[in-house]
Each structure stands twice: as C-alpha cells, then as structure tokens.
C-alpha cells in the first residue's frame, strides 16, 4: 500500500514537471505566457526579446485563449505600465494583410478575430502596422504604431 502511494506521489510529481512552465510564466492549456510588465520596447524589440528567451510574441487563436489573456492582463495591470501590450500580429509587409509572425497564418482568414470596434484603423499619418491589446479597450485587438515603447506578452509551448 505504501509502495502504491509512493508511486502515485511520484507520478504526480512527474506529471507536474511535464506541465510546468519556466519561472515567471503563467500556464494556460498548452501554452506558457509571460508579461514583461517592467520592460518597455518597440514591437520589433519585443519580438526579439521574446525570441532570446525561447518564446514568441503571443499568438491568439481562440476565444478561450482571448478570454484567459483578458483576465490575466487585467490582473497584472499596474500603474506605470503602458496602455498597450504587444502581441505577435503585424501588417507591416502588406497593408491590411494581418498575419501572426510566428506561424505565418493570415489573421484575416482566421476564424477567431477580436478587433475592438473600429480597429484596425491605421490611425495617423504614419499608419499602424503592429498589434497590441489596449487596457482601455479591454484587451481587445488594436493596430498600433510599431515604434511606441510598450510592455509585451510572450508565449511558448
Ligand atoms: Ca496562442
Ligand atoms: Ca497597417
Ligand atoms: Ca488602431
């Protein structure tokens, strides 16, 4: 009996180890997420930061993932953070053709899309080619100027 209990506990540990995310990451379903809340970077810098640390700017593929991230970012939000949080979508290559950089998947063709009403609006003379989640738009999707320093969200398997 003791043996079985020990094996069960061991199994629990191994099971947990497989599911564990690296330090500072939050798990949800098959992914680990890290919000860089005290680092602000342009979209391109944020893209590289994520890669250096073995991840990618977040790719949002389902309503379930979106709902989780809205809650996660709301909980993590503190004064001093940027309104926007970079994620991994851009239309920098062809205006209006949004894609997830990590997968190359067309966002326009993706079944799940979650733009805030009126977005993407390519606002301003320089336009907006990088995707972020705006605190004041309840972390729905927005297109933003790529050179604005903002916090960012990385995702890894
Ligand atoms: Ca994802
Ligand atoms: Ca654009
Ligand atoms: Ca916009």
Automatic annotation (TrEMBL):
Q: Which UniProt keywords apply?
A: Disulfide bond, Signal
Task: List, for all copies, the residue spans of the domain called C-type lectin.
Answer: 28-155
InterPro entries from the xrefs?
Answer: C-type_lectin-like, C-type_lectin-like/link_sf, C-type_lectin/snaclec_domain, C-type_lectin_CS, CTDL_fold
- Pfam name, any one: Lectin_C
Keyword Metal-binding: yes or no?
Answer: no
Signal peptide bounds: 1-19
Q: Which SUPFAM superfamilies match?
A: C-type lectin-like
What domain of life does the UniProt record list for this protein's source? Eukaryota
Q: Does the keyword Signal apply?
A: yes
What is the protein's name according to its record? C-type lectin domain-containing protein
Organism encoding this protein: Mytilus coruscus
Phylogenetic classification of the source organism:
Eukaryota, Metazoa, Spiralia, Lophotrochozoa, Mollusca
């Amino acid at each position: 009996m003791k043996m079985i209990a020990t094996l069960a506990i061991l199994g629990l540990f191994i099971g947990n180890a497989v599911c564990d995310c690296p330090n500072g990451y939050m798990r949800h379903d098959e992914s680990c997420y890290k919000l860089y809340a005290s680092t602000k970077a342009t979209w391109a810098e944020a893209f590289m930061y994520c890669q250096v640390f073995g991840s990618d700017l977040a790719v949002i593929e389902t309503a379930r993932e979106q709902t989780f991230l809205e809650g996660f970012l709301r909980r993590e939000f503190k004064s001093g953070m940027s309104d926007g949080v970079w994620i991994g979508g851009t239309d920098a290559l062809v205006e209006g053709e949004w894609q997830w950089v990590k997968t190359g998947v067309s966002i326009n063709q993706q079944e799940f899309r979650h733009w805030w009403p009126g977005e993407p609006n390519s606002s301003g003379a320089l336009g907006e080619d990088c995707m972020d989640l705006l605190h004041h738009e309840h972390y729905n999707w927005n297109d933003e100027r790529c050179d604005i320093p903002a916090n960012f969200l990385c995702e890894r398997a």
